[in-house]
Write a structure and sequence with these properties.
By secondary structure, this protein is α/β, with parallel strands linked by helices. The protein has 15 helices and 27 strands. It is 28% helix and 23% strand. The strands form 7 sheets. It has a 7-stranded mixed beta sheet with strand order 12-25-26-27-23-24-13. Helix 7 crosses helix 8 and helix 11 packs across helix 12. The longest helix has 16 residues. The radius of gyration is 31 Å and the shape is elongated. It binds one RNA strand of 74 nucleotides through helix 5, strand 6, helix 7, strand 11 and helix 12.
RNA sequence: UGGGGCGUCGUCAAGUGGCAAGACACGGGACUUUGGAUCCCGCAUCGGAGGUUCGAAUCCUCCCGCCCCAGCCA
């Protein structure tokens, strides 16, 4: 059978799959599946799961199905189904013609339940939800048998049929597996496998009045599809004995469940329930807000599918619960975008600079390389004129040590253009704020090099005032205030979101000045704003002539470190 | 002594008895028309204590810590 391409050591999941193919289990076949419940948008944690399932199938020459686990009609919506389809495709995976729904199997799942009743291994229980809980016992004490546990098969069959026919209200009865009320594994204490729900299902409408529980539907769906390796996250480890029990009792095809640790990322909220709160309470604009850890959010923010796949590859797969530093994710986008993103000049906080010895009527264009990392990226024309904007932070009247940028009397290079010297500082008389710089340029330095060989320490980005396009730029920060996982857990415990959410997770900059080539930037375009970071044209709010950009991630900022160290 | 799982660098993670991979982060240096990129260099004795062994992160014993399970959610 096929062996995976990786030369390095295999993670434990792949090792297990390799062991099975080597031993000829399942005839050496590998078939996986990704089973999301359509009750929210997919986030990067889900991406770890489907990346694993699709990749393993691919590496072992097998197949991976996409199956919606839609057994709870009260939580599921078609909007979520559509977003999930889109997001998986976006990340680069394809399920071919194997798109399934657990609801496709409702009929067969029901037949299996009847079979289990006939085998004397399931019964209709009349206990209320509260009573069921009491009878279940606790973590340390065994439960006790339901008074309905020994109902005759025929009676069970009759009652189950009436449940199906919708004769009873929600919660009136359940179908339960007859296993062991004293099991130390609570999942085995006669778990409910069918409940009555008079709810409208997003696909089957009102044809069903009873719905299978996860444990019943999941393993059997895997079995029906011929899945060989059912790879899921670690909280289902306690469910594996039940998964196995159903399959064994029914004597049907028996896949192998394997559990791995979920992905946690510092500064990110990755619980669907909490994410739903963040959306519903308006902390963000929606599931695709550029601050969200959803794939829709990351996409809008400018993350590439390649960078996310690389991140997941580096994160690895193990059983240890761990939290990955968000810095690794950021490193992965920078690495990818550094190679791909065209460089452009954009001034976020403009400071006007008049080049006094540059003739008013004069204008010229410079040839600017689009990406020094990619010779095939070509170049573009950059217009220059007497008045330009530079970044306010690139000038200091009283520069600290190691500040290599512009200051009174100092000479720097305007990238691709000329060497300029600051001759005069114009301030607002009332506030003392610097409003304009008067500079001179050296005509001999066209392109940025001085014929006399003199060097400058700083190179600044700039935009010609006459040609600049106004833009809105959104600087996105982490949604969580604190990096530690405690914050995540606290949110789960119901702590106030206000205490956990970073109050300045988004800063909107208006009146930014960008080079003219960006005027009609197509939504979703990615750039490196020279010396600043990677930015992506917003797919929702950007308009031709009035572009809007989201900062994907900043560039590594050595100067910030130096300045910070000096401040101490 | 309810059951199950997990503990290797700041953060992930290899390693399955024979000198503790790699990545990110961090620190230092080179180079640079992005204080970007690139390139060098540095950075752990494996939760603890005993034991077995010529030799242990890997085997045994005990201890400590963290996670999951008491939905008619998934």
């Amino acid at each position: 059978m096929a062996t995976p391409e990786r030369a390095e050591s295999l993670d434990f999941v792949r090792a297990k799959v390799a062991e099975d193919t080597a031993s000829g289990r399942y005839e050496g076949r590998v078939h996986t599946r990704f089973p999301p419940e359509p009750n929210g948008y997919l986030h990067i944690g889900h991406a770890k799961a489907f990346n694993l399932n699709f990749s393993i199938a691919d590496e072992f020459g097998g197949l991976c199905n996409l199956r919606f686990d839609d057994t709870n009609p009260t939580a599921e919506e078609t909007e979520y189904v559509e977003s999930i389809l889109e997001d998986i495709h976006w990340l680069g995976y394809d399920w071919g013609d194997r798109l399934y729904y657990a609801s496709d199997y409702f009929e067969q799942l029901h037949e299996y339940a009847v079979d289990l009743i006939r085998r004397g291994k399931a019964y209709v229980c009349d206990l209320s939800p509260e009573e069921t809980r009491e009878y279940r016992g606790t973590l340390k004490e065994p439960g006790k048998d339901s008074p309905y546990r020994d109902r005759p098969v025929e009676e069970n069959l009759g009652l189950f049929a009436r449940m199906k026919a919708g004769e009873f209200p929600d919660g009136a009865r359940t179908l339960r597996a007859k296993i062991d009320m004293a099991s130390p594994n609570i999942n085995l204490r006669d778990p409910v496998i069918y409940r009555i729900l008079h709810a409208e299902h997003h696909r089957t409408g009102d044809t069903w009045r009873i719905y299978p529980m996860y444990d019943w539907a999941h393993g059997l769906s895997d079995s029906i599809e011929g899945v060989t390796h059912s790879i899921c996250s670690i909280e289902f480890e306690n469910h594996r004995p039940l998964y196995d029990w159903f399959l064994d009792e029914l004597e049907v095809f028996h896949p192998q469940q394997i559990e791995f640790a979920r992905l946690y990322v510092s500064r990110m909220i990755l619980s669907k329930r909490r994410l739903l709160q963040v959306v519903e309470r308006g902390y963000v604009d929606g599931w695709d807000d550029a601050r969200m850890p959803t794939l829709a959010g990351l996409r809008r923010r400018g993350y590439t599918p390649e960078s996310i796949r690389e991140f997941l590859k580096r994160v690895g797969v193990a059983k240890t619960e761990s939290e990955i530093d968000v810095a690794l994710l950021e490193h992965c986008v920078r690495e990818d975008l550094n190679a791909k993103a065209p460089r452009v000049m954009a001034v976020l906080d403009p400071l006007r600079v008049v080049i006094e010895n540059y003739p008013e009527e004069q204008g010229e264009e410079f040839e600017a390389v689009n990406n020094p990392e990619d010779p095939d990226a070509g170049s573009r024309k950059l217009p220059f004129s007497r008045v330009v904007f530079i970044e306010r932070a690139d000038f200091q009247e009283d520069p600290p040590k190691k500040f290599h940028r512009l200051a009174p009397g100092r000479e720097v290079r305007l990238k691709h253009a000329y060497l300029v010297r600051c001759e005069k500082v114009v301030k607002d008389k009332a506030t003392g704020e610097v409003v304009e710089l008067r500079c001179s340029y050296d005509p001999e330095t066209r392109g940025g090099d001085a014929p006399d060989g003199r060097k400058v320490k700083g190179t600044l980005h700039w935009v010609s005032a006459e040609h600049a396009v106004d833009a809105e730029v959104r600087i996105l920060d982490y949604l969580l205030r604190e990096p530690d996982p405690e914050a995540d857990t606290a949110a789960d415990a119901g702590a106030e979101l206000d205490d956990l959410i970073n109050p300045s997770s988004r800063t909107v900059l208006k009146g930014c000045k960008v080079e003219p080539s960006l005027a009609d930037s197509p939504p979703g375009s990615r750039y490196q704003f020279l010396r600043q970071g990677y930015f992506c044209t917003d797919s929702v709010d950007s308009r031709p002539g009035a572009p809007v950009f989201n900062r994907t991630v900043s560039l590594r900022d050595t100067w910030a470190k130096i300045a910070k160290a000096a401040a101490k």
